Description:
Layout: H1 18-23, E1 29-31, H2 40-48, E2 53-55, H3 62-75, E3 80-85, H4 95-101, E4 106-110, H5 118-123, E5 127-132, H6 135-144, E6 148-152, E7 158-160, H7 167-177, E8 182-185, H8 191-199, E9 205-207, H9 209-212, H10 221-229, E10 235-238, E11 245-249, H11 252-258, H12 272-276, H13 301-322
Parallel strand pairs: 1-9, 2-3, 3-4, 4-5, 5-6, 6-8, 8-9
Antiparallel strand pairs: 7-11, 10-11
Helix pairs in contact: 2-3, 8-13
Amino acid sequence: xxxxxxxxxxxxxxxxxxxxxxxxxxxxxxxxxxxxxxxxxxxxxxxxxxxxxxxxxxxxxxxxxxxxxxxxxxxxxxxxxxxxxxxxxxxxxxxxxxxxxxxxxxxxxxxxxxxxxxxxxxxxxxxxxxxxxxxxxxxxxxxxxxxxxxxxxxxxxxxxxxxxxxxxxxxxxxxxxxxxxxxxxxxxxxxxxxxxxxxxxxxxxxxxxxxxxxxxxxxxxxxxxxxxxxxxxxxxxxxxxxxxxxxxxxxxxxxxxxxxxxxxxxxxxxxxxxxxxxxxxxxxxxxxxxxxxxxxxxxxxxxxxxxxxxxxxxxxxxxxxxxxxx
Length: 326
Ligand SMILES: Cc1cc2nc3c(=O)[nH]c(=O)nc-3n(C[C@H](O)[C@H](O)[C@H](O)COP(=O)(O)O)c2cc1C
């Protein structure tokens, strides 16, 4: 196990590339924005570990988000960002002013057109990365002037494009086509998968499901244990016939929807609070990625991030030693 990264080894974990430089972070790992979950307890732990903590807005609870962002400023002096999941913005008239007013320098936009907010956010001096699930969406984002892309494969948890493309196909397709900094999302949790992302042209990874299961995650222990107990087949992909599609934990409720190509699964989203914080996994839909099948314990965020960076470096060194360039 590589979890025991000593503080003296900390400086060695700095990884310099366009993502770390643009975002002002030490380790090119971004914590996924996740409604109700990506708040100050989780995001400050990520930022304090040298990576990029993100505060969500997809819950639509802007008054609470304002409090969470104020808390971030007490909990960390490191950079953090905000996500705008466009399809879930409660009031499109206020969201941009709200985000700009929070004083963050980094924003990710997702679940919508990159032409909608990019110019306004960039004019206000923010660095904008847009989440893309297809090569065509990447092209649109590049044309809209984004600073970078988050390339998200369909194995990841959360809302998805109804035509799922895996990270292994999507990531190299995008990095071959465009020279923007890319953060890979969907299926990552450790240094070997991070090294694979770098090999495929990414300059960082975004971690979702492993952060849901982390010790600082605010979700109920039942969800964390369900992730820990999950196999790689323990998620379902819902709504291939409509948008948004979603990847979620397999339960009785979600299994019943898996091959239902007429009902919109969003109608069964249920009671988020009962699932997320009450621990009743049948009360709604617990967004979860396939990588749950590789998560075996709930670990502190700093350990997840530092071991990921350390193992990534060791993997790259091992491969270099095994296949030295001639
Ligand atoms: C519970 C949950 C909620 C999510 N909510 C959002 C969100 O609000 N905005 C967004 O851009 N992505 C959201 N996502 C997707 C994540 O940002 C991330 O890209 C994805 O989880 C990465 O794949 P992984 O789960 O394999 O790590 C969510 C994912 C999960 C698991």
